[in-house]
Amino acid sequence: MRTAPAPISQHKLARLTAWLRLWLIWFAGVFAQMWGKGEGAHARAFDEPARYVAQLVALHAFARLKLKPRCAHRHGRLKYASLRAVAGSALRRAMRGRSGAARLFAIFAVLREIDAHVARLLRRLRNGLTRMRVILPRAEAAPTPCAPAPPCIAFADTS
Length: 159
What we know:
Blueprint: H1 10-36, H2 47-64, E1 77-78, H3 83-94, H4 100-112, H5 114-127, E2 135-136
Antiparallel strand pairs: 1-2
Helix pairs in contact: 1-2, 2-3, 2-5, 3-5
């Protein structure tokens, strides 16, 4: 039985991890300069770095995962789960913080302890996602037009 190739090589994964760490250090430097001037950061400013870290955790998990060969679903095709559903609430909760600085430090902590989060995600993927996914129906051919059905003759009810 042939197995699928790994989705990403270890070399590329190491390069992505190093790039993300450098980018987060730059990001923290920009916000440290803003906080030094007394300016605040918008709460949504840290959504993008958190999403990048969640994607990196998912990539680490998928690189360690043994891929099964693709098979057809008998009812149609499954709608793929979103990254938010795959990562789970534990990872999102780990990247929260009460303030901007606390959230940035929480994102750094997740990146520092990436192996623990990858192990948790692998256990979660091995058990399967617990939420039901939408099964999209197969595309079927449009019904062919045909002649109208002959009128039915109904007899009077004599009972």
